[in-house]
Write a structure and sequence with these properties.
The protein is an alpha/beta fold and 442 residues long. The chain folds into two domains: 173 residues, Beta Barrel (Lyase, Ornithine Decarboxylase, Chain A, domain 1), CATH 2.40.37.10; 246 residues, Alpha-Beta Barrel (TIM Barrel). The protein has 14 helices and 21 strands. Strands 4, 14, 15, 16, 17, 18, 19, 20 and 21 form a nine-stranded mixed sheet that branches. An eight-stranded parallel β-barrel has the order 5-6-7-8-9-11-12-13, surrounded by four helices. The termini are far apart.
Length: 442
């Protein structure tokens, strides 16, 4: 049986950064969102710096209260805007990067190289050389082939690479197939039965300094049980390696802690801290985590305007057509993901909701944000906020259908400022050129 969607009032009540004011309408960190939308236009991304800070501090507090010293390496892939990275750097976070571009971006945002972990299943020789030249704190290696390639690059550069082996513990995290990373059939990590042999091999290869192990089993995980199972396997491997005379100084626990998008009962950070303490707390290793979604997702909303309400026959839900689309927020089209939607108008919020299907204007049938969603009746020009889009939102945007990248703003303590201008439409073809034979014809 399909469970009912939460109504707009319930969505609002469960998000402490949002407030509906009787005059100003929906506010995010005490900034009336209609001011941002009217100034920058829609669609428009809004990031809450205070929310980023609060969630980072809550995560740190959970580790401290568990008696753990855990380094936080924020996963850039979730939201890599320089303003976001600056806030998190101020809060004491390092970075987890998965490309040379992300590494350059993290350095440009002021993050220290030694506080950066380079992860990812397909690092090129050029990216490895960059990481070594900059002196990143750790490179998480995902295969025997990558290990040997890194050894050759490090030796050729006369440098030593601090490496951790990312192991695949063959644990099903119970999340969506597209964001599961720790099962035997997933592309990530070193097969469990090969990890000990490869660790010994790493210790013998020139240019490498094996320092520990890494694990990451997926994203949007809503139970501590998969974490405990994965970390227990890692702990057993640490003990095995040490018994065989090898040095293991670090364990990178990855990320994946889920949030509440719809009506999920999301585990608090204390649950993750408890799983780490129970399984790894007595191993005398330096611990780290790589959160992305948990910190960033609730710190963002996507503002959009209603273009049209398309009435349907036979009592089917009407189509609410927005000016935001799948090229802006790809997650619903990619993963069938659920995002809350709220009107910015206080008058609209309190009108009885009716089922409506919320879509964008892109010419794809998958350009759907919500099906038969209970929403108050809305009209052309009304403003809405799509919630919890701070992670895997703007970073996954494209210019499909020649739709320019949306503007972005940041809010904190009742003030706001643009942090990225809307892309001019002319910029879409500014870097395009014609081959000589077409120039001659034209």
């Amino acid at each position: 049986m399909t469970r009912p969607d939460p109504d707009p009032l319930n969505l609002l009540a469960s998000r402490p950064s949002l407030r509906m004011d009787a005059q100003a309408g929906l506010s995010f960190e005490d900034v009336p969102l209609h001011l941002v939308a009217r100034t920058l236009g829609t669609p428009c991304w809004v990031t809450g710096a205070g929310t980023l800070r609060r969630r980072t501090r809550n995560l740190k507090t959970a580790f401290v209260e568990a008696g753990l010293d855990v380094a936080i390496h924020y996963a850039l892939k979730a939201n890599d805007h320089l303003a976001t990275l600056t806030v998190l750097r101020e809060e004491g976070c390092g970075a987890d990067v998965v490309s040379g571009g992300e590494l350059h971006r993290a350095i440009h945002a002021g993050l220290a190289p030694e506080d950066i972990v380079f992860s990812g299943v397909g690092k090129t020789r050029e990216e490895m050389a960059l990481a070594l030249r900059l002196g990143v704190g750790q490179i998480n290696v995902e295969s025997a082939e990558e290990l040997h390639r890194l050894s050759r690059v490090a030796t050729g550069a006369d440098r030593s690479a601090r490496v951790a082996l990312r192991v695949n513990p063959d644990i099903d995290a119970g999340t969506h197939d597209k964001i599961s990373t720790g099962r035997a059939g997933d592309k990530f990590g070193i097969a469990w039965d090969q990890a000990a042999t490869l660790y010994a091999e790493a210790a013998a290869l020139p240019g490498l300094e094996p320092v520990g192990l890494a694990v990451h089993i997926g994203s949007q995980i809503l139970s501590p049980a998969p974490f405990r199972a994965a970390f227990a396997r890692v702990a057993a491997l640490v003990r095995q390696l040490r018994a065989e005379g090898m040095t293991v100084r670090t364990v990178d626990c990855g990320g994946g802690l889920g949030i509440r998008y719809r009506d999920e009962i999301a585990p608090p950070p204390a649950a993750l801290a408890g799983a780490i303490k129970e399984t790894l707390g007595t191993l005398d290793v330096a611990l780290a985590v790589e959160p992305g979604r948990w910190i960033a997702a609730p710190a963002g909303v996507l503002l959009s305007s209603v273009i049209d309400v398309k009435r349907t026959p036979d009592g089917a839900p009407d189509f609410l057509i927005l000016d935001a689309a799948m090229n802006d927020l790809a997650r619903p089209a990619l993963y069938e993901s659920w995002h809350g939607i709220l009107p910015l108008s206080p008058e609209r919020l309190h009108v009885d909701p009716t089922p409506q299907t919320v879509v964008g204007p892109v010419c794809e049938s998958s350009d759907v944000f919500a099906e038969a969603r209970p929403l108050p009746p809305l009209r052309e020009g009304d403003l809405v906020a799509i919630l919890d889009t701070g992670a895997y939102g703007s970073v996954m945007s494209s210019t499909y259908n020649s739709r320019p990248f949306a503007a972005q703003a940041m809010v904190e303590n009742g003030v706001w400022q643009p942090i990225r201008a809307r892309q001019p439409v002319e910029a879409l073809w500014a870097d395009e050129t014609l081959p000589d034979w077409l120039r001659r014809v034209s």
